[in-house]
Structures are given as C-alpha cells and as structure tokens.
Amino acid sequence: MIRTGGPRRLGVPASEARLTFDTELQELSGGPRRRLLMVDDEPAFELTFYCGTCPLLFRRLETSRERLSLESMQERLTGTLDDPDAGGVIDAFGTLLPEGDYLPLLLEVEPRLVIPGSEGDYFSGEQVTTWGIDQFWGLPEYPHTPYYRTFETAVDADTHLYEFVVPMVPPTWNERERVEEYAALMEQGTVPTAVAISTLDVCQPAIDRGDDYFAHWGLTHFLIDGHHKLEAAATAGRPVRLLSLLALGESLAEAEDTARLPALRTRPRRARGIGW
Length: 276
Prior knowledge:
Layout: E1 3-4, E2 8-10, E3 19-25, E4 32-39, E5 42-47, E6 58-60, H1 74-78, H2 89-94, E7 100-109, E8 112-114, H3 126-131, E9 147-156, E10 159-166, H4 176-187, E11 193-203, E12 215-225, H5 227-236, E13 240-247, H6 255-264
Parallel strand pairs: 10-12, 11-13
Antiparallel strand pairs: 1-7, 2-7, 3-4, 4-5, 5-6, 7-13, 8-9, 9-10, 11-12
C-alpha cells in the first residue's frame, strides 16, 4: 500500500460509461443468472455469483476484446504515481466508469503471471482445497484467461485475502516492442503506473467439501490501463504501481470489509497453510 483516500463519488450515467456492471436474468423466472462486467455494452467477464457461497470467479467471455487506455494519461502514467489524486488521473478514468462510490487504493505490486491449470493457479489450487472440484463438470473453475497474482495475506484464522490483476485481453495480444520498452525502463529504476477497476468478493461454501474450510476474500483488479506494463513487470521481476478504483456498490462485501482493505494491504505477504 502506498496511499489511499476516502470513498468518493465518481463516474458518469451508465448509458455513457464504457465499463459497467450488469445482471443477466433468467428468461422464465426472471431471477439472476450471471453477474457481469460489461465493456461497451458487451459482456466481458462473468463474475462471482451473488449467493456468497459460490466460488470466486472472473471468467473472460468471448466479447472481451477491448483495452480502455486514455491517450491523455499515457505520459503521466509512464512514471511513478505517488498520490492517487496527482495529475487528475482519478477524474480522467472516472469518465469511463458508471456513477457510484469508489475507494481509491494506490498499491505497489510485483505481478506473477499465472496460466490456468499451471503451478500457482488459484482456481486449481487454493479454491479446490475449500470448495473441491465442480460437482457437475468434475473440474476446477476455469477463468479462460491468464492473470497475475500479486498479494495474499491472512485476514484472520478463518479468512484469507487473495489479490489478482486481470487483463481485459491476454498478454499474447500485447505489442512486443511496448513490453520491451517498459521492461527496459523498469531495469533503469522507473516504476510506471497501471489503473484498474476493482471488486472485493467475500465467499465461503455452505457445505464443507474440501480440505480447508475458510472464507476467501477475492480482491480482483480488472485492468483499464497497463496491459504492457504488467507483462513487462512480470517478465523483468520488477514492481509496478497500481491505482485501484474499488467499486464499493458492486462488490460482494459488507462496508466493514471494504473499510478493512487499506490496513490489510499493509500486512506482510502470507500464504495460507491447510488446516489453519
């Protein structure tokens, strides 16, 4: 954690925002089917279901094809952002978001790229230890995207916080020259800044089917700006700053949970041992 501010009102009417949250309804009953992150009115990611007992989820959908960088902010974000309010960055990116309450968090992260199903994959690792494998498919959840792991720590003996940075498009879509340029800057000591809209989802299964029954707090940052920066940092083993705009009204967490995030994010990184 570098700095945080108090919650603030940001965004534009949903009809004008490029990035919104939505609920897909069942055709017959009218009940909720999927919780969605939308980009330009197209479903980009399926998110954790509302029930609170379903596993954490960020699943990329076929229509997730757009980055949302702002050309006017590129020069400002190539360098290190020391204050979330510096240079009008929050207000600029607020024009992409739906009107609502957001908590700005300025973090420094050292991203590690994870391929689903490989070593370090949360969905086939820590999630399975609590929920077991999907009872219908007989497989772990699958996010349909590479993603970055950045931080985790204990909230308490029965709760653990996991942090993820999720690109809107996979790293294979990045321009190689730009990734190499950022990697070279980082090797010279530059710490550039990325921007994300984020959610905090609190999940715990209703039934103990796994080896370690506890609550998972998923702090998920969906990249708005910084796809090349995150890949460069992961490749070079260097830090990058991340301005997170936590969508308070769209998170599956109580107000007291989101209020704890700044303090939790200052704790030492700590993995969870089975059976704590």
